[in-house]
């Protein structure tokens, strides 16, 4: 999809629904998509149904990224609590066939332009990206996030200790 055809199709965000399960499975069962994710590749529809019912639908801010109302990925904002309630973590995933087309960058910009108004207490939106996931790092940079540094040996992912790059956008930033 060329940049001008991206502009001609409407990217929307909406809450996920059980009826999205077939579209969800398109990216959740793809090893290329789950490679840098904390979750393992899905292997069954029942596993996906359990996730949608018990985690995604009740999540405080879980949206599907849609083109023509068809779910092609998801984007989440997960709030912290207590003394950390001023910040939340951004996460996203997109079906492989849509990579490299600017879709996630646009979705991240959409979230950044609205989440600070939706959650008045929020001052910082942060994202953690595997050091080898250059595409995701570019998404955040293009969306106006600031690269703050590398957290060494920050998380165990799929049995291995991984370094992650932290990016942030704060409510006082003018770039969004």
UniProtKB/TrEMBL annotation:
Sequence ranges assigned to domain N-acetyltransferase in this UniProt record: 11-163
Molecular function in Gene Ontology: acyltransferase activity, transferring groups other than amino-acyl groups
Name of protein: N-acetyltransferase domain-containing protein
Species name: Buddleja alternifolia
